[in-house]
Amino acid sequence: MIACGRCNRPLKDPKSVERGYGPDCWATIQAEATRTTNRNGAEKSDFTYRINTSQGKPVLVITDLDRGGMSVTNNIEAIVQSIVAEIGERVYTMPIVYRDSMGRYDGVNGDSLQRNPFYFLNKDNETDAVIAAIQRQEEQICGTSH
To answer: What sign has the CA pseudo-torsion 110, 112, 114, 120?
Structure first.
């Protein structure tokens, strides 16, 4: 059973499971995000994000909207920090993938943003990228790599 990322209560509603938060916690998070005016440099980039739940695991998917602002690639640290400010520290424990301005998906090491933020997935669709990121995280947890 998946639990709310804010209060740890079990999630039952499919939309809540997808978001990772129950309706009350999600409303609180949205209200806090609305009050946040400084995105710590992330406002320089044009991006969107969502939580994609695959195989029962949440994956943060960031999309570079490529509207002339700083690329997600060049601003990933500020972008991830702004997302953490909106939805919580659990972001650092989930796989993160991003779609660059060329439409390719690669991975982001949420726990090492300053040292080595990216890893190669080179996928052309979100589903394949999300699955590859989940597999990579599971391999790291189990101590195996291919």
So the answer is: negative
